[in-house]
Amino acid sequence: MTYTFPKDFLWGGATAANQFEGAYNIDGKGLSVQDVTPQGGIPAKPGDRNPLITEVPTEDNLKLEGIDFYHRYKEDIALFAEMGFKVFRLSIAWSRIFPNGDELEPNEAGLAFYDKVFDELDKYGIEPLVTLSHYETPLHLTRKYNGWASRDLIGFYERYVRTVFTRYKDKVKYWLTFNEVNSVLHAPFMSGGIATPVEELSKQDLYQAVHHELVASALATKVAHEINPDFMVGCMVIAMPAYPMSANPLDQLAVRDFENQNYLFSDIHARGKYPNYIKRFFKENDIEIDFAEGDAELLAEHTVDFISFSYYMSVAQAHNPEAYETGKGNILGGISNPFLEASEWGWQIDPVGLRLVLNDFYDRYQLPLFIVENGLGAKDVLVDGPDGPTVEDDYRIDYLQKHLVQVGEALQDGVELLGYTTWGCIDLVSASTAQLSKRYGFIYVDRNDDGTGTLARYKKKSFNWYKEVIATDGASLYK
C-alpha cells in the first residue's frame, strides 16, 4: 500500500555542535566535556568503566575541528536546502555562549554565530530545531561543581537558556532541553558532566543529579513559554524497546524493569511527577531525593509540549542475562536478539521496533512525537561517479527506507508525529567512539580518523534518494 506523509510533516536531519562545528577555541568559546574525551564519551576499551579523559585538549581529538561547520555553514545549509529539508536539528554549544558556564554575561561572538546560522536557515525556509544541551556541559562546571551532581547548575542553566530564548525568540520555535537525558545513568561524564568516576558514583548522587536535570528542564520550559508562548519545548530520550528472551514471565519482568529506566525520564517530563515504580526502586536502594522548595510544583506545572527521541536499535532482556551474549555498541545494555541483523558496530537493526516505540509513547502520553535521531553508521567508500566523487550507500537507503515505512504504519495507527530528522545528515564525529569513519550522512566529508583530508563535501547516492522522499511526501518509499 502506498502511503503519503502529511503535507506539513517536518523532514530533515540532525547534528550536534560538538560533533561538527569545530572552532573549539575560536571567538571566545570555552572548553566542554567533549574537548577532553578524544576517544568518545563511553569507555575507552572493553572492561573500562569510564571514558578516557585528558587534562587539556589533545591533537588526536577529532571534535576540535569536527567538519568545520563553523566556517562552512552556508555551504552545508545550501546542501540541506537542496535536499528539501523542512527542519534542521542542531545544538547550541553552551560554552560558546557562556565559556565557563557560570559567568554573569554571555559571549556576544557566540550569540552572533547562531544568529547567522538561523538567518541562513530562514533564507531557505528551514525550521531550526535546537537542542539546548547536547552532551556539551562546559568543562569548568564539571571540574568546579561536578556537573549536574550539583544543584548550582540549575541556576547556571537557567541563565543560559533565558539568554538564548530571548535572543532567538523570533528565529526558533522548536526547542529540546537535554539530549538523550536518560543516558546520564550510563554515561554520567558525557551526559551530565559528572566528574566522579562511575565506580565511585553512588546511586544516591546519580539520581540526585537526574533530579537536578529534570527540575532544570521544567524551569527551562517555564521560561520558554514566558518569553514566547508559541515556543514548542520537548524532552529528548533514547528510545530502545526490549523484547523478552523467552515466554518466561520473569523475562517479561526484566523487560519492564529495563524499559522503566527510560520511561522514568519521559514520565516526569510529560506527567510532572515521579512514578510509583521509581519510588519503590528508591526505597529498595536507600535513595532519598532532596526536593528543594518549589521543585514539585515546577515539575507538575511545566510539562513538555512534545516527546522527542532517538531510535537506532532494540534489545532483548532476560532475568538471567549472564546466560546470553551481551549486545555490542549499546550504551544502555541489553542482550543480542537472534532474530535481528546488526550494523558494523553491533547495533541491531529493527525497523518494526520504531513503530512499536511510536505507538507506545503515543498511547502512554497522548502528546505529539518527534523522531529526532535515526540512522545507520557505516564505513563508506568514496568512488568516482558520473557527477564526481560519491558513495554507493544502498545499505543506508535500505535501512532508512525500511524504518520510514514503519513510521508510515505508525501514522496510520493514529500516532501524532511532528517530523523526522536523520542522525548525522552530513558526516560528523561519532559521539560514542569519536571516529569519522562511522559515517551516517547523506553528504560525505573528506576527513579521516587520523585527521587528514580536505573537508570537501560530496553527495552520496542517498542524497538524491532522501530528496525524492521529501519531494513526494514519502510516496517514493513504496516504489
Automatic annotation (TrEMBL):
<dbReference type="GO" id="GO:0005829">
    <property type="term" value="C:cytosol"/>
</dbReference>
<dbReference type="InterPro" id="IPR033132">
    <property type="entry name" value="GH_1_N_CS"/>
</dbReference>
<dbReference type="InterPro" id="IPR001360">
    <property type="entry name" value="Glyco_hydro_1"/>
</dbReference>
<dbReference type="Pfam" id="PF00232">
    <property type="entry name" value="Glyco_hydro_1"/>
</dbReference>
<dbReference type="GO" id="GO:0016052">
    <property type="term" value="P:carbohydrate catabolic process"/>
</dbReference>
<keyword id="KW-0378">Hydrolase</keyword>
<feature type="active site" description="Nucleophile">
    <location>
        <position position="373"/>
    </location>
</feature>
<keyword id="KW-0326">Glycosidase</keyword>
<protein>
    <submittedName>
        <fullName>Beta-glucosidas</fullName>
        <ecNumber>3.2.1.86</ecNumber>
    </submittedName>
</protein>
<dbReference type="InterPro" id="IPR018120">
    <property type="entry name" value="Glyco_hydro_1_AS"/>
</dbReference>
<comment type="similarity">
    <text>Belongs to the glycosyl hydrolase 1 family.</text>
</comment>
<dbReference type="GO" id="GO:0008706">
    <property type="term" value="F:6-phospho-beta-glucosidase activity"/>
</dbReference>
<dbReference type="InterPro" id="IPR017853">
    <property type="entry name" value="GH"/>
</dbReference>
